[in-house]
Amino acid sequence: MNGPQVRVRTPKDLRRDRRPHPHSCWDQLVVAPLWPLHGVNLGTLLRTCDAVGACLAVPRLPWVPEALERGNTLRHPACVHWTGNRVRWLERQRDRGSTVVGVELAEESVRLGDLPAARRRTVVVLGHEQTGIPPEALDLLDVTVEIPMVGTGASLNVAVAGSLVLYRLAGLL
Known about the structure:
With 173 residues, the chain is α/β, with parallel strands linked by helices. The protein has helices at residues 11-17, 39-52, 64-71, 86-95, 135-138, 158-169, and strands at residues 29-33, 55-58, 80-82, 99-103, 110-111, 122-126, 143-146. It has one domain (24-169): 3-Layer(aba) Sandwich (Alpha/beta knot), CATH 3.40.1280.10.
């Protein structure tokens, strides 16, 4: 028995169907790993931002620019916002009218599958890989989202968790 023919899309097909040039700043969907532990996660999130049309917001830590430079395999500049004071930056995002979504295990968390696509400017906050989002920032979240897991771990890598939530909020999952 022969099944249906599968047509693999060529790189030329993919380029034709996508935007012609990289963006300068979409700013409607922003992922903010504000307490990064591993530089490699920033590079992974940068790729996901490009894939879903999001921007990356990062703190001005001494090692972050080099991590972004090493991790940017896009061959063009990426949209990166620098936060300065992380809690004040989050306060400004809320004052600006953004929805602030935290990826955190909390009693009131929405399961990832139940999270609706973003309808207005949304900031996705990612915490420290070991300690999560600090208490002073938790008060600034409009909603928390939990990624269900059936394995033995308590959480996913920051880049993986951020990528899943970005795809969901972008309406691509």
